[in-house]
Write a structure and sequence with these properties.
two-stranded antiparallel sheet; about 10% strand; about 375 residues; alpha/beta; 11 strands; single chain
Length: about 375
């Protein structure tokens, strides 16, 4: 099964969510290696592009292996959004331009961007219609059910977005008020799918192959977007793709450590090692999630300063696990590809180290810090 967004054919309907602080070129490269049909960058601010922020420009880096790739922008003011869209259209090699109408974090909402736009269908329609008209590349929209439970308007918004000319819609089946909590209501994905003729990608609470299949069966959606479930566990991508291809990949424990090392190595190619490893402090621990006797090593990974230090810690932990398995053959091998749901029942599920920045906090940092100091007040 494949998915087509206008003329862009995706090799699989498995789409990787744009995650603030996560969806770097390094992360996308790993996701692509495990079969992702479409990868997305972390959202960038229209204001930051307008004021030519060096940090934001760096976030637009891609390479020949990064396709198809979608670049996501957020904002509220038409002039700066259209400028940002033209930059993505003419000065980057992204294949798809995605407009964010789903981010729920406070600083984005204060800028009347992200899921704030769910409040005003007419304004969103006018804005997106002009955005589509200003670029040559396909435009997609990621949105939520509505601003809160009393104002669920995703069906009407989806119809307006189709009329505005977007080529696909991704629906995160939560309201803005829910943030990332509570249960995603997939019934609205089906209602949106039934209301429009363009592709609909479902998002929310997919952390296993079974979840993906159930979402597609229950909603009829054309693709499934996976986010937090694959952080540190890219094997889930391959397992989802295998469902469609009929293939069956098996994974060894060392592949999880190898993926973590590659993630760090690729970050070091794009950033100063100090900066790259500060990002990996939060991400590396996720590669150990659900594995036994990992608490001490997660703590050490949250303090790494060099790539060599990360490699040393992972090699030590891998040897510990291998020695443990050799002396306890009755316990079986640790499974490197376990879903988020399964991980919660593992022998150890250490708390996330305090140094790890949450996705919400990182999104707020993007809203505040991706623009120069003299425009931060406007971006808030």
């Amino acid at each position: 099964m494949s998915l087509k967004i206008r003329e862009i054919s995706l090799p699989s309907p498995v789409v990787i969510a744009p995650m603030a602080g996560v969806s770097t070129r390094a992360f996308r490269t790993i996701a692509r290696q495990f079969g992702a049909g479409l990868v997305c960058n972390e959202m960038v601010s229209d204001k930051a592009l307008y004021y030519d922020s060096t940090r934001t420009r760096r976030m637009l880096k891609s390479d020949e292996n990064d396709h198809p790739v979608s670049f996501q922008i957020f904002g509220h003011d038409k002039d700066t959004i259209l400028n940002a869209a033209r930059i993505l259209d003419e000065e980057t090699d992204c294949d798809i331009i995605d407009f964010n109408m789903g981010c729920p974090v406070n600083k984005v909402i204060k800028a009347k961007a992200g899921s704030y736009l769910m409040k005003d269908i007419d304004y969103a329609y006018d804005l997106v219609k002009d955005l589509v008209a200003s670029v040559k590349k396909p435009v997609t929209v990621k949105m939520r059910l509505g601003f809160d439970a009393d104002h669920i308007n995703c069906v009407e918004m989806a119809q307006a977005m189709e009329k505005a000319g977007v080529s696909a819609i991704t629906l995160h089946a939560r309201t803005r008020a829910q943030m990332y909590e509570g249960k995603a209501d997939w019934s609205w994905i089906k209602k949106v799918k039934d209301a429009v003729s363009i592709p609909v990608i479902g998002n929310g609470d997919v952390t296993s192959v079974e979840d993906m299949v159930r979402m597609m069966d229950e909603t009829g959606c054309d693709g499934v977007m996976i986010g937090r479930g694959i952080v540190g566990n890219p094997f889930l991508i391959q397992e989802c793709v295998d469902y469609f291809t009929g293939e069956h990949h098996t994974f060894e424990l060392e592949q999880r450590f190898a993926a973590c090392k590659l993630h760090a190595k690729l970050l070091c190619e794009d950033l100063d090692e100090r900066v790259a490893l500060s990002q990996m402090r939060g991400l590396a621990s996720w590669y150990l999630k659900g594995l036994p006797k990992s608490h001490e090593y997660k703590d050490r990974l949250s303090k790494i300063r060099t790539y060599d230090e990360l490699v040393t810690i992972l090699d030590e932990y891998q040897k510990l696990i291998e020695d443990y398995q050799a002396s306890h053959p009755d316990k079986g091998k640790a499974n490197p590809a376990v879903s988020e749901k399964a991980e919660t029942s593992q022998a150890e599920s250490a708390p996330v180290p305090a140094q790890i920045t949450t996705q919400t906090e990182t999104a707020e940092n993007i809203a505040e810090d991706s623009a120069p100091a003299d425009v931060k007040e406007e971006v808030h």
